[in-house]
Structure formats: structure tokens, C-alpha cells
Amino acid sequence: MAEEDRHVVSARSGQPNEKAGTPTAGAFRSPSPATPCARDIPARDIPRQWHRPAPRYAALDLGTNNCRLLIARPDGAAFRVVDAFSRIVRLGEGVSKSGELCGAAMERTIEALHVCRRKMDDRNVSRARLVSTEACRAARNGPDFLKRIEQETGLKLELLDRQGEALLAAAGCAALADHQAASIMLFDIGGGSTELVWLSVRNCGEADIRSRIRAWTSMPLGVVTLAERHGGVHVCGRTFEAMVQETAATLAPFAEEARAACAEPGFHLLGTSGTVTTLGGIFLGLERYDRRRVDGLWMQAGEIDDVLQELLAMSYRERAENGCIGRERADLVLAGCAIFEAIRRAFPAPRVRIGDRGLREGMLMEMMREDGVLRRA
């Protein structure tokens, strides 16, 4: 199957096209518009006249652990992914201790961004938003590194603030909320920070995402920072609980502010991150991770308990060999689970929905809405 047209994300249902494959903002110097080609033109229109292809949009999220790019074109009320890229770069490696980005991490990141730039050029992207998050926010040399990125790749990355990160996470995942729920708690566990958003759902219709946010927070805790403090290779029950307690203490003020959420009709958690998608993949017994089966998955509280216990019982080698975790994340996944467990204790819910989407999808939807290229469903 060609990379083109691999999956569709809807602004309303949030459901990926079942024929989908795995997909994986700022400004950049845009190439000239693409020449129309047959695959961009509906067959019924070919005899009539040639049309310019739909514009290509790009969203890039440079996080503490990953560098992710998504390129898409509008498709009705949704968008269709035409190319994607994801690489673990561990940009934030050691920042929690040294306060600076290290040379090796910056080199890995520059290499990944060169790949992103080539993909954007090849796909004739006409508009892009490129953002960096916690690693560059926290590091003393973060702003200087962003200048270096622009000089070496031509990509001008925006340093996204915490509120902006929470907003984009909500925009990217809100479509997965149960529309019968009065409100939900959305969370995004990242490498260097974790965002939580208390979001109104029922009777909100097409209301702007900003007007639906009741409360939000961004904790300076993520899977990389927590694993560096407590260790991520050999994690016993005591170490895991220490990570949970540290997260719970940081989360406590927001838990008090949003304590009424759990009592609302239909309340549930909605999680987006490598942590929750990993839990979903293990729950389904997947030999290799499959976004089509995990994105939108519901899990009951007891099912999550069982998978957490299964993960805690695994050795580092077993985690590394698991197709839903892999060697590059084997030392981080339990730190993410500890953050997730702290969130579950603060906001008890009978079920959790898992989303394999987030900032990039939120940026794409916002750009396309601003340009008026999405049709109403």
C-alpha cells in the first residue's frame, strides 16, 4: 500500500478509517505549489477538468522523548494522513539533572529533523506548525538549540507554553470522548511533562475547544524525568509506588480543584500517550503494536489493574522484547504507568478510553479550520 491516504481522523467521531495504517508546529520555507496529479483527483471529475490537489498541512511535535511529524490533507470534515514520521530522540536526556540539553541528544534530534524537512519538501506542504515542548522549555540552552535547528534545517520551531500544550492535546483527542458524558478528564503523559484537562462534553456540539475547558494543569513530570530520578530498568513494587506518590503530590492541587469531575454523569478518563497505548496493545495481546486496534479502545478499571500487574512482573529484558514496548522504551514504560496510576487514584473512573493521537492532530485540525478547508459533517 502506498503511503498516501493511509488513515482518516474525523473531527466528530474521532474514529480512524479501518483501512488505516500507522501514521506517525512554527514555520518553514514552503516549496512552490504541487502540480495536480491523478491520485489527487476524484475519478468522476477527471473527464471534466483538472483541479489542484488539496493543500498539504504538516504538524511537528518535538518532545522530550520523541520527534513526530504528521502530514495530511483535508478530506470532508476530517483529514487524511499522507505521510508520517516518528523517532525516539531522547532530547531531554539528563536535563532534569544537568539543566541543559546534551550534545548527543541534540545531534540525534537534528538528524531526525532533517528527515522531517525532506518529507515536508517531498509532500509539497503549504502550511505547517512546528512546536517544541518541555525539553526546550526546561533546558537553559533550549532557545539556543532552537536557533541552531533553524540554521541547519530551515525549520523554525515554536516554543510551546504549557497552556498551549494542554489546549492542543484536548483539540487532538476530544472527539474520542463519550458524547453522553457530562465531562471527562483528558491526560497526556509526555517525556518531560504531563497535561490534564477537565473538559465538558455533553451538549457542546461544535463549540470551540477553549470554551469547553473547565480546568487544566501541566505537571513538570514525564516518563523521562521520573525514570531518571527513580530508575527505569529494574523497578520493584516499592520503586513504582514511590513514583506514584511523587506524581500524586505534584497533582494534588489540581485534584482538589477538579474533584467534582468524578461525580458527573458518564465521567471517564481519556488518555493519550505511549504509556496508555502500550497498555492497550498488551491488553489486546498484540505481537506488534497496531494503531488501528488501539486508537479508540475502551478499557475497564479492572482490566487496567491486570495489565499494570503484568507489566510490573516483567523483567527489563521481557519488556524490551515485547512488541508493544521495545528496547527504546523498556526503561520508561513503568514510569509512565506510575503517572497513570496517580491520575487514576486522583480521578477514579470505571473506564478509560485510549487515544493514539494528540498535539499533531490538534494542530492539523486547528490549521484546517482556520483555513476553512473542512466541510461541516
Explain what you see:
There is one protein chain. The chain has helices spanning 95-98, 103-122, 134-138, 142-153, 162-173, 209-212, 223-230, 237-257, 274-283, 291-294, 301-313, 316-321, 333-346, 359-371; strands at 7-10, 27-28, 56-62, 66-75, 78-88, 125-132, 155-156, 158-159, 183-189, 194-200, 213-219, 269-272, 298-300, 351-355. It has 377 residues and is of the alpha/beta class. It folds into two domains: 7-163, 2-Layer Sandwich (Nucleotidyltransferase, domain 5); 171-355, Exopolyphosphatase. Domain 2 (Nucleotidyltransferase, domain 5, 2-Layer Sandwich), CATH 3.30.420.150. The chain has a six-stranded mixed beta sheet with strand order 1-5-4-3-6-8, sandwiched between helices. Strands 11-10-9-12-14-13 form a six-stranded mixed beta sheet, sandwiched between helices. A hairpin with a 2-residue loop joins β4 and β5. α8 (237-257) packs across α13 and α9 (274-283) crosses α13. It is globular and about 55 Å long. The two termini are 28 Å apart. Mean pLDDT is 88; it is low at 1-7 and 11-50.
Quick structural overview:
The chain has helices spanning 95-98, 103-122, 134-138, 142-153, 162-173, 209-212, 223-230, 237-257, 274-283, 291-294, 301-313, 316-321, 333-346, 359-371, and strands at 7-10, 27-28, 56-62, 66-75, 78-88, 125-132, 155-156, 158-159, 183-189, 194-200, 213-219, 269-272, 298-300, 351-355. With 377 residues, the protein is α/β, with parallel strands linked by helices. The protein has 2 domains: 7-163, 2-Layer Sandwich (Nucleotidyltransferase, domain 5), CATH 3.30.420; 171-355, Nucleotidyltransferase, domain 5 (2-Layer Sandwich), CATH 3.30.420.150.
